[in-house]
Specification:
- The protein has 250 residues and is mostly helical.
- It folds into two domains: 1-118, Alpha Horseshoe (Leucine-rich Repeat Variant); 127-249.
- The chain contains 14 helices and no strands.
- The protein has helices spanning 5-12, 17-22, 27-42, 51-58, 63-97, 101-109, 111-115, 120-124, 142-155, 161-176, 181-200, 204-219, 224-235, 239-249.
- Helix 6 packs parallel to helix 9 and helix 9 (142-155) runs parallel beside helix 11.
- The longest helix has 35 residues, at 63-97.
- It starts with a helix and ends with a helix.
- This is PP4R1 phosphatase.
- GO terms for molecular function: protein phosphatase regulator activity.
- It comes from Pomatorhinus ruficollis (streak-breasted scimitar babbler).
- Keywords: Repeat.
Length: 250
């Protein structure tokens, strides 16, 4: 009653390989691009009409098709709700995490938007996988690591201080030593955001341990770039305040 059945059938047939040969070689990509809009129009109660098509597109041999879905999976999750997302989207999301960098960047750019929609126990499972984003197919793809640092600043609010210290802290320190200055700069902001997280949650011991680690790793580094990194971290707003409070009250 929402969409005429012939029109819906026409849309679903866009994944047919024969259509790519006779109509448009990128017809599957067009189908993937329009899928969130179709899903919104049909509503989550009619997701079963699109589920098979979505899974077909998610396994398409063309990375551009998978990339298109990766960039919009967070929007589809909002449309479907937490239960359908956990059942039908999480497995595909996990597949995108192991895909080519051209596909992975799609989920990375909206990683926070997707993770915040998951239940806390399911969200916690991704703590083990976040460090995999540090490794890329092409080490010169520094924008990938830059995007990771930006997302981690947002993701901090989704996890408790202990999880941040055990998992995200290591990633932040790695990014602070990146060869590309732009990545290091955004990572310094991430470091300060982690300290603010500890301070806001009264995790003074974790904060003091982290500051001590920064001092040992960067302030006393034998290379000038490490000592420069410490100076830049101190330059970031709020670091001096956090440092003072930890030293005085930690």
């Amino acid at each position: 009653d929402i969409i005429p059945q012939p029109l819906l059938d026409q849309y679903l047939s866009m994944t047919d390989p024969a259509r790519a040969q006779t109509v448009d070689t990128e017809i599957a990509k067009h189908c993937a691009y329009s899928l969130p809009g179709v899903a919104l129009t049909l509503g989550r109660q009619n997701w079963h009409c699109l589920k098979d098509t979505y899974e077909t597109l998610a396994s398409d041999v063309q990375w551009k098709v998978r990339r298109t879905l990766a960039f919009s999976i967070h929007e589809l999750a909002v449309i479907l709700g937490d239960q359908l997302t956990a059942a039908d989207l999480v497995p595909i999301f996990n597949g995108f995490l192991k895909d080519l960098d051209e596909v992975r960047i799609g989920v990375l750019k909206h990683l926070y938007d997707f993770l915040k929609l998951l239940h806390a126990d399911k969200r916690r499972e991704y703590l083990y996988q976040l460090q995999e984003f540090v490794v890329t197919d092409n080490s010169r793809n520094w924008r990938f690591r830059y995007e990771l640092a930006e997302q981690l600043i947002l993701i901090l609010e989704l996890y408790n201080p202990n999880d941040v210290y055990d998992y995200l802290r290591h990633i932040a320190l790695t990014l602070c030593s990146d060869k590309v200055s732009e990545v290091r700069w955004i990572s310094f902001k991430l470091v300060v955001a982690i300290l603010q997280k500890f301070y806001a949650n009264n995790a003074n011991t974790l904060g003091l341990n982290f500051i001590n680690e920064l001092v040992v790793r960067f302030r006393h580094c034998s290379k000038w770039v490490g000592r420069q990194a410490f100076a830049f971290i101190c330059q970031v707003r709020m670091f001096s305040l956090c440092f003072y409070l930890y030293i005085k009250f930690g």
